[in-house]
């Protein structure tokens, strides 16, 4: 994986303070430094564990590593509906690894599933319509071997692994409860997202997590519980909630359009 910085790349060399996060000052086209990137996380399969990475590409559709977009895969049930961690917490036991063009998913017992990271859909692939919460989207079925792996691990029939490709039909968004108009508009403006809940990127700060832990008496949490792509440090707790746009020294620019409850 290339470690060179371009206008669209962010790298975890920021762990030693190389890359800063900038806050867009209201009504001015200038930025002030508000923190540094501490860690980068990539989630190839929705609801499974993520991978801490050194570098990734910022795209309109989300974080990209080795040509694969964040949350490109998901597991669905016999009704073709997402199986989430809330439904099957055992999904958190599965680990993932990327080696070149191969995604490897492993169980705690050591059983492995290797999935090819294809650049495009093959002519003989089967595409199916499935549901992510209330949204309807089209996905590429990953085959019977992958299905058997997840059926065995979850002890559920008819489970399938599917993958999103940007050139499949656009995601059909449905209103979710009392979502803000700006949030609903954001989702409509980016219909080719993979299987992210709301937006292309998820940003959380370490000080916010530390502040939360200071109020928890027993069980503590970490950034892993919140599944962010970007963990920011050297800022005030929850200051990220007010950041309108953030800019990295590499040139990547992200705009904050919605807060996510977890």
TrEMBL record:
Superkingdom per UniProt: Eukaryota
Q: Where is the MOSC domain?
A: 173-262
> What are the entry keywords?
Membrane, Transmembrane, Transmembrane helix
Q: Does the keyword Membrane apply?
A: yes
Transmembrane ranges, per UniProt, are 6-24
Give the residue range of the signal peptide: none
Fetch the InterPro entries from UniProt.
Answer: MoCF_Sase_C, MOCOS_middle
Q: Does the keyword Transmembrane apply?
A: yes
Q: Which GO terms describe its molecular function?
A: catalytic activity; molybdenum ion binding; pyridoxal phosphate binding
What is the protein's name according to its record? Mitochondrial amidoxime-reducing component 1
Organism of origin: Araneus ventricosus (Orbweaver spider)
Q: Which gene encodes it?
A: MARC1_5
């Amino acid at each position: 994986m290339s470690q060179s910085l371009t206008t669209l790349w962010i790298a975890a060399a920021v762990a030693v303070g190389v890359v800063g996060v900038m806050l867009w000052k209201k009504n001015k086209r200038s930025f002030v430094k508000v923190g540094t990137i501490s860690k980068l996380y990539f989630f190839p399969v929705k609801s499974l564990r993520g991978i801490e990475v050194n570098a990734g590409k910022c795209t309109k559709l989300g974080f990209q590593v080795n040509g694969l977009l964040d949350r490109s895969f998901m597991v669905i049930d016999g009704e073709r509906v997402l199986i989430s961690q809330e439904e099957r917490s055992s999904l958190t036991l599965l680990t993932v690894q990327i080696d070149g063009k191969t995604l490897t998913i492993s169980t705690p017992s050591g059983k492995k599933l290797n999935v090819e990271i294809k650049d495009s859909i093959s002519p003989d692939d089967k595409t199916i319509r499935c549901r992510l919460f209330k949204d309807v989207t089209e996905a590429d079925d990953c085959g019977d071997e992958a299905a058997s792996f997840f059926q065995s691990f979850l002890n559920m029939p008819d489970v399938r692994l599917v993958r999103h490709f940007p050139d499949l039909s656009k995601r059909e968004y449905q209103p979710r409860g009392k979502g803000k108009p700006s949030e609903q508009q954001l989702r409509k403006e980016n219909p080719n997202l993979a299987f992210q809940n709301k937006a292309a990127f998820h940003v959380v700060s370490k000080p916010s997590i530390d502040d939360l832990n200071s109020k928890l008496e027993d069980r503590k949490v970490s950034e892993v519980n919140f599944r962010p792509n970007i963990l920011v440090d050297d800022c005030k707790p929850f200051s990220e909630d007010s950041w309108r746009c953030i800019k990295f020294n590499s040139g990547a620019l992200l705009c904050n359009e919605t807060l996510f409850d977890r």
